[in-house]
Amino acid sequence: FSQARAGIISTVEVLKVMEAFVNEPNYTVWSDLSCNLGILSTLLSHTDFYEEIQVFVKDVFSPIGERLGWDPKPGEGHLDALLRGLVLGKLGKAGHKATLEEARRRFKDHVEGKHILSADLRSPVYVTILKHGDSTTLDTMLKLHKQADMQEEKNRIERVLGAISQPELIQKVLTFALSEEVRPQDTVSVIGGVAGGSKQGRKAAWKFVRDNWEELYNRYQGGFLISRLIKV
Fold first, then answer.
1. pLDDT digit string (tens) for 80-108?
2. In whole angstroms, how far apart are CA 170 and each of 80, 96, 107, 134, 190?
3. What is the rounded CA–CA span in Å between residue 230 and residue 232?
4. Pick from 63, 104, 100: which is nearest to 83 by CA?
């Protein structure tokens, strides 16, 4: 991947190599593949090939997703749980039909209190339903944020809100980032989530940061959070 980024080899060669990893069981390897595919998706979001790279993601991640399933198996280690979350999140964001349907079903049960999602499945489920959700989905997530009694859960929700796709809902998330509902040190996570969520999100987040620069700068006074904000 580094060679492709440097222009030494074609990205097509990288994708061919990636296809060879479909039977890979190791979390660290999948994490690296996922990260690099994410960078590629971001670059391709400005081209006509974005939908095609989503199809590629589904093709590469489907076999491992089917093998892992949604529920822990006896004797599994914690890396398997991490891998499950990574793979389901990747498939869900890419619009893999079966993953999206199951995520919606489990989210509904979670919200209604019938069957609470385990901690390691919450982020992939939240990101999937938001990516393909509407204003009702966002309102439900904001309600869950308000009701959460643990800061860990609030942070988990804050990080994924940027997955929402519609421009007016992206604005709602950005406004929420500066509200009293979000701790000042966590505002950057919300804006960063929007910036990383979609092409529209990146543009909206950049405009939002410029429009609110004075307030953000005064809030963080040149600390590490302002540099992190600029970086995202």
1. 999 999 999 999 999 999 999 999 999 99
2. 33, 23, 21, 11, 11
3. 6
4. 63
